[in-house]
Amino acid sequence: MDRSRGINDYEPGPVPSESRVDRYGFIKQNVSNSSAAEGLGKSREARRVRKWRKMIGVGGSDWKHYVRRKPHVVKRRIRKGIPDCLRGLVWQLISGSRDLLLMNPGVYEQLVIYETSASELDIIRDISRTFPTHVFFQQRHGPGQRSLYNVLKAYSVFDRAVGYVQGMGFLAGLLLLYMSEEDAFWLLVALLKGAVHAPMEGLYQVGLPLVQQYLFQFEHLVREHLPKLGEHFSREMINPSMYASQWFITVFSYSFPFPLALRIWDVFLFEGVKIVFKVGLALLKYCHDDLINLSFEKLIHALRNFPEDAMNPDILLPMAYSIKVLSLSTQVFMALSTLKFLMSIHF
């Protein structure tokens, strides 16, 4: 991505009318009349919200108790999708970020106001490229861009070894659509430092070591689960770095349809990075018959531009959930493949 344009070069157009904005705040590409479907969806959503409020309690007070008593119910409901109005709170509860916030009062304010970062200019240059079609981030120097800058700057100070890397903005931007700056910062810390699951900071360290590891593992999983497609990719000299790097770096928040990205994030925060592998494999499986007949140039295009029906959460995610990548044999396989990868670096 071009890093030459700064924030001052970005001139947003007028704020669109409500009818031109979807339920998530993005400018609609096509405006259609779907009031009947929306009405049915709202009725179903209201029932789900009532179930979720009963499950989490006031302000999340019952959450930990419910998870201990009924983990399978929690997992099933998260896989169906967290109600949008509760998403920010539930993400904080399942990520462990709420606990980090409570243990570190005043730290975020200190990082934003009193510290300086070597990454400030890089952050400013990239701000306008983060969800540019969302009304919250469109206004130059507006509240959305200021909040995004503050969160990224604070993290670059909090963890100077990582600092700031392109791609982190999409994580922070996604979080800011559902919570305050301080809450978004601590959830970013929880993810990168591993409050609940394996730390993500290796995705952004020098050399992107965790990205390289995940891509190496994903290539072997493709050969295991989709052997014919894996062989075709090998013949056409296609490797995951050509199409899947952003899947891991942004957890599908870059360029994927927002409703699908949200559903993946619901599961990702609760179950960990295995959902990224599963969704990636499900996409390839869904498009298998088309992909296997394409040559190099057309393959690259197809792997970066999946058809609309493949991006339907209600079609893709059940396929992803059915793919088993963490059985005992696969754990051994992943461990061995990682060891081979590390050996290939050092020797």
From TrEMBL:
Annotated segments matching region Disordered: 1-20
Q: What is the lineage of its organism?
A: Eukaryota, Viridiplantae, Streptophyta, Embryophyta, Tracheophyta
SUPFAM superfamilies noted in UniProt: Ypt/Rab-GAP domain of gyp1p
Which residue windows are transmembrane per the record? none
Q: Which Pfam families match?
A: RabGAP-TBC
Q: Which UniProt keywords apply?
A: GTPase activation
Family matches, as Gene3D superfamilies: putative rabgap domain of human tbc1 domain family member 14 like domains, Ypt/Rab-GAP domain of gyp1p, domain 1, Ypt/Rab-GAP domain of gyp1p, domain 3
Domain Rab-GAP TBC: start-end pairs:
81-272
UniProt-recorded Gene Ontology molecular function terms: GTPase activator activity; small GTPase binding
Q: What is this protein called?
A: Rab-GAP TBC domain-containing protein
Source organism per entry reads Gossypium raimondii (Peruvian cotton)
